[in-house]
Amino acid sequence: MHINISYDFLSPTDNSAYYNYNDYCVIVIDVLRASTTINVLLELHEKIHITEVENIDNEMYKDKFIKFGEKNGKKIESCDYGNSPLEVRLNKDNILNQLNNNDNTNNKEILLATTNGTRVLKSIISDNIFIGSITNAKYVADYVFNVANEQNKNIIIIPSHRKGMFAIEDYIGAGLIAKYILKNANKYDITIDIENLIPAINLVKSDWKTKIINSASAKNLKNLGYEGDIIFCSSENTQKIVGMYKDGKIVNIKKIK
Q1: Rounded CA separation 159/151 (Å)
Q2: Which terms does the UniProt entry file under GO BP (predicted)?
Q3: Residue 136, beta-bridge partner list
């Protein structure tokens, strides 16, 4: 089994480009904040539709969805909510009421648009694409390792980064997930070449939370008043949930008890 961290999205990418990872189980990471918000939404509902920021106002989505969307950290004006996991938690009851209307005639679905995460997810070709974050690092690592082991596939961890610029928080998330995958490999006595993982694993041995707090993405969120989200998104293994992406939707496949 090979485990790699991808650098494909470290530079500006043509939106029409596709990456064939059919031989891999893929873990996509967007720490601040899409991955964590997805996990929070999957705690409320079993399915999330995703779209590009540019398409959020498409007529086909009108009146059918509760819209969650941000661009560069800011809530999109036409959306019901931004991309804040804490905002989702605070509005949990209202969201659930819209999802589970008593007369079953106006039940809505969830639609999410993000700056970076959607672009990355829709660029990948694979039957096994999972959502990774710091908040579910161990749980997604355990689940994906088992799938890869059963299907004789490799694992690739893809940090979404920030509009073609290096995002250290996503690289830290990749390092934490890689750490837990390697623990599984050691348990099953599976040999893995860890040379390409060493920088990320060494990074998470340091004070990685301070590095996230001082990152460019975090500074942008602080300026927008979302400092609480930074702390929430940096809390390791607080969400026992795993989401899988396929055909424009993310589905809750593993809610761990």
Answers
A1: 23
A2: coenzyme M biosynthetic process
A3: none
**C-alpha to C-alpha distance for 111 and 113, rounded to whole angstroms:** 7
Compute the distance between CA of residue 44 and CA of residue 177 in angstroms, rounded to an integer.
24
The average confidence (pLDDT) of the chain is 91
pLDDT in tens, 125-164: 999 999 999 999 999 999 999 999 999 999 999 999 887 7
Dihedral in degrees, nearest 10, Cα atoms 162, 164, 166, 167: 10
Q: How distant, in Å, are the alpha carbons of 61, 76, 140, 176, 235 from that of 133?
A: 27, 23, 8, 9, 10
Can you list the domains of the chain with their CATH numbers?
3-255 (3.90.1560.10)
The tokens for 208 are: 């990685």
Using CB atoms within 10 Å of the CB of residue 82, give its burial: 0 to 12 exposed, 13 to 18 middle, 19+ buried.
buried
CB 157 within 8 A of CB 5: yes
CA distances from 168 to 147, 148, 218 (A): 27, 26, 10
- C-alpha closest to that of 168 among 219, 228, 121: 219
Which contacts of 5-9 are long-range, i.e. CB under 8 A and separated by 24 or more positions?
5/156, 5/157, 5/158, 5/159, 5/171, 5/174, 5/175, 5/178, 5/196, 5/197, 5/200, 6/156, 6/157, 6/158, 6/159, 8/158, 9/120, 9/123, 9/158, 9/159, 9/160, 9/161, 9/164
Query: Can you say whether residue 153 is alpha, beta or left, with left for phi > 0 and alpha for psi between -120 and 50 degrees?
Result: beta
Regarding pTM above 0.85, the answer is yes
- Written as six digits, the tokens of 93 are 């009851």
